[in-house]
């Protein structure tokens, strides 16, 4: 199973499932539907517009003919027959001109001015009765209808002829074959179809470029993700776009950086783990070796003197206590570093903790005649915390201060509160070198000073973890031969009112 997980990932995508084809196909279908719909609407509009323009032209021609015929009627001009003859020739073969007399008028136009007798035409059959009647009623009419006399669909326009009294004495009907305009429309449609085809062809090329531009960054990100999955975290997408794809590429690059950092951290943790086991083994090997040597000598009867036997037992006890202390420190440090470990917090008075610590180490400080002075601005400093853990944290610092201080020196403890609760512990000891200062909170780190020969190197690491688990931090200032100052900062300090409220609710 592990070998399968470690195999390089190379997921094949079928051709028809590729993003490029999907984007191109959808874009092309959208363009095609849009072009067809737009073309259909445009052709309908064009056809209607063409017919309206043509009808308007026929109406304008009918008006002119009507006005001219009216003049001939008033003057009884003999040239009228020639005019009609020329008029019919000019409009043939697409358009016929009918000049009809209104028999219902008071003074109807003379029959000699007619060029067609409507009584010889079946008006019902030709569907133009309405046009003629409305024209005689003084209306300008336009209608498309099928006329059997022509055997075709015709566009018919009627315009009334007036005399000088504004009476409708007749009408002019222009009938034109619709096919003549259909040819014009067909020709225009062909041009539109050719233009649409060229537009679609160009749009499809643009769609290919667009789909490629969209898919190529995604393909790069896919390859980058596969390389990341293989464990190479130095790879980058190399994509710089100010859009959502660019944001995604940047996110993948950030992920690669985080994975690289995590890998480095993992390696460091692995090295720390190995160093930890090595240090634990080293720390335990020495006392175990000593105890074993003493036990072997006692069992073999090499040492029989009662005083020496008692001395050996005493040394064996000290080594066992040392191992017990080491194991205890390791357990505490392990608990502090475990994120699931919960510290039980309650209101604690830091003044009480320091007084307890001073009583506990009085015998040790008295041997070196070291005085411990506490300065405070108020009688109590209350915070939420674990009494034993906080006591252990400060005890480590003060114990080190005594250990590394000269005889007849002083240790100063200062407590204050402004925005934060600040506790400083300053000694007048030998100090810490600049090279050692960054490493003092590391596990098993011990200086080469003789005062630290018996230490386990876990005290400051434990103190730092306790401080962090209480939401605080530690700052260290030190100069060789001038002393060391540890400063603790905590965000919370409880007032008497807050303490009363806490005790009431808990």
User: Portion of residues in helices?
Assistant: 55-70%
Parts with pLDDT < 50 across at least 5 consecutive residues: 1-8
Gross geometry:
rod-shaped
Proportion of residues in extended strands: 15-25%
CATH-level-2 architecture of the largest domain: 2-Layer Sandwich
Q: If helices are DSSP runs of H or I spanning 4 or more residues, what is the number of helices?
A: 13
Provide the succession of SSEs. Answer: HHHEHHEEEHHHEHHEEHEEHEEH
In what order do the strands lie side by side in the largest sheet? 6-8-9-11-10
**Number of E-type strands:** 11
Radius of gyration: 55 Å
CATH H-level name of the largest domain... which superfamily?
Answer: PAS domain
Number of domains: 3
Briefly, what CATH class of the largest domain? Alpha Beta
Enzyme class: transferase
Main location: membrane
Subcellular location: Membrane
Protein name: histidine kinase
Q: What does this entry show, briefly?
A:
The chain is built from 13 helices and 11 strands. The protein is an alpha+beta fold and 506 residues long.
């Amino acid at each position: 199973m592990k070998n399968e997980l470690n195999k390089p990932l190379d997921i094949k995508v079928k051709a028809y499932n590729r993003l490029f084809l999907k984007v191109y196909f959808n874009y092309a279908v959208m363009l095609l539907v849009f072009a067809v719909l737009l073309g259909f609407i445009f052709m309908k509009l064009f056809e209607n517009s063409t017919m309206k323009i043509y009808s308007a032209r026929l109406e304008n021609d009918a008006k002119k003919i009507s006005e001219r015929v009216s003049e001939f009627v008033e003057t009884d001009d003999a040239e009228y027959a020639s005019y009609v003859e020329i008029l019919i020739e000019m409009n043939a073969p697409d358009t016929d001109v009918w000049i009809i007399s209104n028999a219902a008028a008071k003074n109807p136009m003379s029959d000699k001015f007619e060029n067609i007798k409507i009584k010889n035409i079946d008006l019902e059959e030709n569907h133009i009765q309405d046009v003629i009647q409305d024209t005689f009623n003084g209306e300008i009419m336009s209608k498309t209808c099928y006329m059997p006399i022509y055997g075709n669909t015709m566009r018919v326009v009627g315009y009334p002829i007036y005399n000088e009294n504004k009476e409708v004495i007749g009408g002019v009907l222009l009938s034109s074959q619709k096919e003549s305009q259909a040819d014009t429309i067909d020709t225009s449609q062909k041009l539109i179809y050719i233009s649409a085809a060229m537009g679609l062809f160009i749009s499809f090329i643009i769609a290919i470029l667009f789909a490629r531009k969209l898919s190529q960054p995604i393909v790069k990100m896919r390859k980058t993700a596969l390389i990341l999955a293989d464990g190479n975290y130095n790879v980058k997408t190399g994509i710089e776009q100010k859009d959502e794809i660019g944001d995604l590429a940047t996110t993948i690059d950030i992920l690669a950086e985080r994975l690289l950092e995590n890998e480095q951290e993992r390696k460091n943790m692995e090295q720390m783990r190995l160093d930890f086991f090595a240090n634990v083994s080293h720390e335990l090997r020495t006392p175990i070796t000593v105890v074993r040597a003493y036990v072997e000598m006692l069992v073999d009867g090499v040492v029989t003197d009662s005083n020496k036997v008692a001395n050996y037992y005493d040394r064996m006890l000290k080594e066992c206590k040392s191992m017990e202390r080491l194991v205890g420190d390791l357990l505490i440090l392990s608990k502090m570093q475990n994120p699931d470990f919960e510290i039980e917090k309650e209101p604690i008075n830091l003044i009480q903790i320091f007084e307890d610590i001073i009583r506990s180490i009085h015998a040790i400080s008295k041997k070196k005649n070291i005085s411990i002075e506490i300065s405070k601005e108020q009688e109590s400093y209350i915070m939420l915390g674990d009494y034993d853990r906080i006591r252990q944290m400060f005890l480590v610092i003060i114990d080190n201060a005594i250990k590394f201080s000269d005889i007849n020196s002083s240790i100063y403890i200062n407590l204050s509160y402004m925005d934060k609760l600040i506790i400083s512990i300053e000694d007048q000891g030998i100090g810490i070198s600049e090279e050692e200062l960054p490493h003092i909170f590391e596990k098993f780190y011990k200086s080469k000073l003789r005062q630290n020969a018996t230490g386990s190197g876990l005290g400051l690491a434990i103190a730092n973890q306790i401080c962090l688990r209480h939401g605080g931090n530690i700052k260290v200032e030190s100069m060789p031969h001038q002393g060391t100052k540890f400063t603790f900062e905590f965000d919370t300090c409880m007032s008497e009112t807050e303490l009363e409220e806490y005790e009431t609710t808990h």
